[in-house]
Amino acid sequence: MQINQFKKDFEGAITFFKNDVAQLRTGRASTALVEDISVEAYGSRQPLKAVGTIMVADAKTITVEPWDKGLLQAVEKGIRDSGLGMNPVNDGRLIRLALPELTSERRAELVKVLHQKLEQGRISLRKIREDVRGLIAGEEKDKSISEDEKFRLQEDLEKMVKSFNEEIQKIGEDKEKEITTV
Fold this sequence. Notes:
By secondary structure, this protein is α+β, with helices and mostly antiparallel strands. The chain is built from 4 helices and 6 strands, in the order αββββαββαα.
């Protein structure tokens, strides 16, 4: 048994965390803010990124150009109903989203949400660690590995978890800096 074979599980948790945190709004426009908004299109709910092109026009503006112009109203409604607090402007060809300035209260709220997401990221790492520990214990119980090997594997596992926790912490600190910078 090698601890490195579980690296993909940890990296998957980190990738999910990065994507989750990318959706938090900072002072700059980002396509990640709107790409997963659900839109009613062709009789089903679809993410916005599946029905049009999303671009950042400038630091405070996002544009959405549906591939099918008949979906303009549906895209506009989906954005309005998303709870992001953005007011879409439909010019008949594309939809513009001007990002309002973040208030200090909103920044504080976003930092709280970020801290919740950080904790969720740490929890997912701990869950993977516990699963791997269970596998190691099972291997020892089956006499596939010695007790010394078990302790070495657990030590390697702890080092790996520590490095991934540090990575999550760094991502969180960078995002917090982004959110609080005016």
